[in-house]
Structure formats: structure tokens, C-alpha cells
């Protein structure tokens, strides 16, 4: 219906706004769960390029019929984002990521699928870029699960909630930063203090993960081990860990 299309377009606009893209050049964006390409239309209007991924052949057929300008890929994002590192200047997703919380098959583990999605998305995004994922969480546990897996994959950021005091207009945007921790944008219509606490709670999620084993300060042993582990997961050749890993060399030999 036209109402759905209208809401979809508004959320796409808001998501792109939250990406904070440079104004002087066209960017390449990834649209996760692009459906029939409504968000893509807005991205194209703004002068940017996009690639859309969706699990539904029927929806992608509609996008093809509508002759959208983006490229389309039929894929399950729970299997990961199959693009080369640093390819995208940003990612948006409208009402899609919460589906990864469902175990549709016996073999599906939501935390694993979410982690696979976020870790490969992190790799596919250029340093300093953002991912803005609008989602409809079923409950706070789902929000926690999704946010936790994003932080585990290396993102910083947190939840931006628009119109938190309205039942109808309330919208959740998971706003994630790659490689730089930006300041979390303010939610629209957030004049209430309780929302601030909510945001702080999600933003501190990362520090909690980082401090489980003491500190993961840059270039520390933990930091190096984590980086090597990430490399291994990407299938790269990495030297085995030893007691010398992360040790400082003596200043003279």
C-alpha cells in the first residue's frame, strides 16, 4: 500500500541522513534486505550508487521490473556479506536485520548468523564509514543480542531511537561506526532524560566487551591476538601465537 511505501521512504531517508555521507562526491552504498528497491530509489535520487541484497527472489523480481538503478544480489546475509574489503562507503538496512534473530532451520544459530553478518559487513565497509540499520525488535533481549554481536564484530556506536515517547512513530536505528568512534547522532523527538540512559547503556556495550580480559588497548597483546584471530577467520595466513606474541623488543640487539 502507498502508506507502507511512504513509511519505507521516510525511514530510508532518515537512515541515509544518519550515515552522514560526504556531500562532495557520490558514494557506493550497500542496502541489506533491499526488497523491491524503494530505499535504492532514494539513494539514486541523492546521486549515490548502491548494491542491494535480499533473500526473496519475488521481491528482487519486482525491483528488476521497476528498473531500479542499483545492482541486485540474491543472498542470505546470515551467510555473510560477499564483497571485497573496504568496498562500501556505507550500509543501510530497513526493517531487515531482526529476521536474523529467527532460527528458520535446525542448523540456524541466531548469534552465529548475526556475528557472521556483522563481521563480514565490518570488513566490506571502508574505514571511517557507518552502517545504519533500522529494525523492529521484538523485545529488549533481541536488541541486546543484535547490538552485542555488532560490537563483538568490531563496530562501535549504538542505538538511536526516534520519537521514543510515541508508540506509532518510535523507530530504532542501530548506528554503527567502522574504525572511528563517532558521536552517536541524537534521536528525533528525544527530549526526555530516560532515553539518554538507554543510549548510554548501548554505547557502553563495547567497553564491556573490551574489558572482559582487562584491557585491549591498541598494540597490546590482547589486541594483537584479536587481530590475528580476525585474520584467521578471513582465511589469511597468520603466524601461530606464542609466548612472544605482543612482547616488546629490546631497544638494542
TrEMBL record:
Q: What is its main location?
A: cytoplasm
Record-level GO cellular component terms: cytoplasm; nucleolus
Any idea which UniProt keywords this protein has?
Cytoplasm, Methyltransferase, Nucleus, S-adenosyl-L-methionine, Transferase
GO process terms (BP): rRNA (guanine-N7)-methylation
Q: Which reaction does it catalyse?
A: a guanosine in 18S rRNA + S-adenosyl-L-methionine = an N(7)-methylguanosine in 18S rRNA + S-adenosyl-L-homocysteine
Q: Which residue windows does the record flag with biased composition (Basic and acidic residues)?
A: 235-244
> Is Methyltransferase among the key words of this record?
yes
Query: Which portions of the sequence form the region Disordered?
Result: 226-253
**Presence of the UniProt keyword Transport in the record:** no
Q: Can you say where in the cell this protein is located?
A: Cytoplasm; Nucleus
Molecular function via GO: rRNA (guanine) methyltransferase activity
Outline the extent of the 18S rRNA (guanine(1575)-N(7))-methyltransferase Bud23 C-terminal domain.
Answer: 176-250
Domain Methyltransferase type span(s) in chain numbering = 30-106
Q: Could you give the subunit structure recorded for this chain?
A: Heterodimer with TRMT112; this heterodimerization is necessary for the metabolic stability and activity of the catalytic subunit BUD23. Interacts with GRIP1.
Chain's role? S-adenosyl-L-methionine-dependent methyltransferase that specifically methylates the N(7) position of a guanine in 18S rRNA. Requires the methyltransferase adapter protein TRM112 for full rRNA methyltransferase activity. Involved in the pre-rRNA processing steps leading to small-subunit rRNA production independently of its RNA-modifying catalytic activity. Important for biogenesis end export of the 40S ribosomal subunit independent on its methyltransferase activity. Locus-specific steroid receptor coactivator.
- Family from the record: Belongs to the class I-like SAM-binding methyltransferase superfamily. BUD23/WBSCR22 family.
Q: What is this protein called?
A: 18S rRNA (guanine-N(7))-methyltransferase
